[in-house]
Design goal:
CATH superfamily of the largest domain: Glycosidases
Number of strands: 26
Helix content: 10-25%
Radius of gyration: 22 Å
CATH class of the largest domain: Alpha Beta
CATH architecture of the largest domain: Alpha-Beta Barrel
Structural class: alpha/beta
Bound molecules: alpha-L-arabinofuranose
CATH topology of the largest domain: TIM Barrel
Number of helices: 10
């Protein structure tokens, strides 16, 4: 049996828990929009054609923000196609995913959906095939009250109140050679700076996200951020980070340690941003928008777009089925994001429905929750107040990709007002259970409110439409509090939440 200890102290605060850390992402990709969130033929569809059963489950997931409309899709997108009478909207080729888009859903529909789902919208603009003018046009359409061409067009299209979108992504993954309109760091940095500067002439208080790297393994990683931020530092608030190369390729131990890579990614980008801050004699800090992250089995057939003359609407694409080990890793990646709440001010689990998603739907039919749904929903529900900096003592496990890593990874949050503490913990050992002892003496007299653990003797178990409930987070009866100490047994390959209160 492995043994690890944590010490919690309310004086050691990293920063606040942010609702924006629990963001997600809806792209015009595969069945995320069409037959995902939008399915007019479904019995639960509202007047806009949005599935209300999906909206209910999005609320249950606890999502804070939703990024839209892409992704790679946005780099060829003409937003004007998606506004006005639906029957006169054009169908366009989507080059990013070799599909067709009928534009039935556009910015007005998405905003109506976001308001119903109680999520904050985060809008991405096309800096692949387009530039400053089109960014200004969509901003005017969305955020100007009225009396101008595009703001009056929005009113004419049925929305009098401005959409008032605060967070805007200046393009998507512009470092990636696969991106439509891919640019060098210098070319992109200049365009992003001019776009941001002009957007602020309309609305100085926007929160602008400049593209960072599509992954820490990109050949330009680090240098890209340094060059782009050198051009844009005073014009933007956040730099993006995307990470997907988390998949079990026969090496479970390395896969379970994926959060080591995310820790390294965040700390490297923060260090690079601080280098530019020093070099440019700036005082403000640039924060990180980790606006695409997930486990993604990119080599599987599900991720292969159509080809040739086949340009389908809403094809089955990237519909990964997640197992218990995948859910443990997703829970651990969320631990990493929370641990860095001082620098990560926004994050998006990519994506929300059907496409590498926690929520799956059948066209016109059932929906079900993947295994990854549960650690996300429980963390969103119970992480409150401040994130605490922990003292951790853990045995090591050996991994091929990362060398020796802690078997235990954990983060804790404390809601001082409610007098509640939540500890989120992962046992990354592939074979051995771990006894966790937590010293909570400096937190006063706390009792156990509950402990839940997600694990299964078969970590490859995955939910389906027929069975998404046989393996769920279960009450962990080993958890106990006595004399200022919490003890709990964490099975191998497991994710847990332990909740304490006064
Ligand atoms: O989320 C799927 C794709 O992954 C997005 O379109 C793109 O930004 C990233 O490469």
């Amino acid at each position: 049996m492995l043994k690890a200890t944590l010490v919690l102290d309310p004086a050691f605060v990293v920063g606040p828990v942010r609702r924006r850390t629990f963001g997600s992402f809806v792209e015009h990709l595969g069945r995320c929009v069409y037959t995902g969130i939008h399915d007019p033929a479904h019995p639960s569809a509202d007047a806009d054609g949005f599935r209300e059963d999906v909206i209910d489950v999005v609320r249950e997931l606890g999502v804070g923000t939703v990024r839209y409309p892409g992704g790679n899709f946005v780099s060829g997108y003409r937003w004007e196609d998606g506004v006005g009478p639906q029957d006169s909207r054009p169908t366009r080729l989507d080059l990013a995913w070799h599909s067709s888009d009928p534009n039935t859903v556009g910015v007005d529909e998405f905003i109506r959906w976001a308001r119903k789902a109680d999520v904050e919208p985060m809008m991405a603009i096309n800096l692949g095939t387009r530039g400053v003018q089109e960014a200004l046009d969509i901003l005017e359409y969305c955020n100007v009250d009225g009396g101008t061409h595009f703001s009056d067009l929005r009113r004419q299209n049925g929305t009098d109140e401005p959409h008032n979108i605060r967070m805007w992504c200046l393009g998507n993954e512009m470092d990636g050679p696969w991106q439509i309109g891919h640019k060098t760091a210098h070319e992109y940095g200049r365009l992003a700076a001019e776009t941001a500067r002009a957007m602020r002439m309309i609305d100085p208080d926007l929160e602008l996200v400049v593209c960072g790297s599509s992954g820490s393994a990109m050949p330009t990683f680090g240098a890209w951020e340094a060059t782009v931020l050198a051009e844009t530092y005073s014009h933007v608030d956040m730099v993006s980070a995307h990470a997907y190369y988390y998949e079990e390729d026969g090496d479970l131990a390395s896969f379970l340690a994926s959060a080591v890579d995310m820790d390294h990614f965040v700390e490297s980008v923060a260090a690079t941003a601080d280098y530019v801050r020093a070099a440019k004699k700036q005082t403000k800090r640039i924060h990180i928008s980790f606006d695409e992250w997930n486990v993604w089995y990119q080599q599987r057939a599900e991720s292969e777009p159509p080809s040739g003359q086949d340009w389908p609407v809403a094809p089955v694409l990237l519909e990964d089925r997640y197992n218990v080990a995948d859910a443990v890793v997703v829970g651990n990646l969320l631990i990493s994001l929370l641990r860095h709440t001082d620098r990560v001010h926004s994050a998006s689990l990519a994506q929300l429905v059907n496409v590498i998603a926690p929520i799956m739907t059948e066209p016109g039919g059932r929906l079900w929750r993947q295994t990854t749904f549960h650690p996300f929903a429980l963390t969103a529900q119970h992480a409150k107040g401040d994130v605490l900096r922990l003292a951790v003592e853990s045995p090591q496990v050996e991994t091929v990709k990362f060398g020796e890593v802690n078997a235990l990874d954990a983060v804790a949050t404390r809601d001082a007002e409610a007098g509640e503490v939540a500890i989120f913990a992962v046992n990354r050992s592939v074979s051995e259970p771990l006894t966790l002892t937590v010293d909570i003496r400096s937190l006063g007299d706390l009792r156990l409110l509950g402990a839940q653990t997600l694990s299964n003797p078969d970590h490859t178990w995955a939910a389906t439409a027929d069975d998404d409930t046989s393996v769920l987070p279960r009450d962990n009866s080993s958890a106990a509090v006595s004399g200022g100490t919490v003890t709990v047994e964490l099975p191998a390959v497991s994710w847990s939440v332990i909740r304490l209160g006064a």
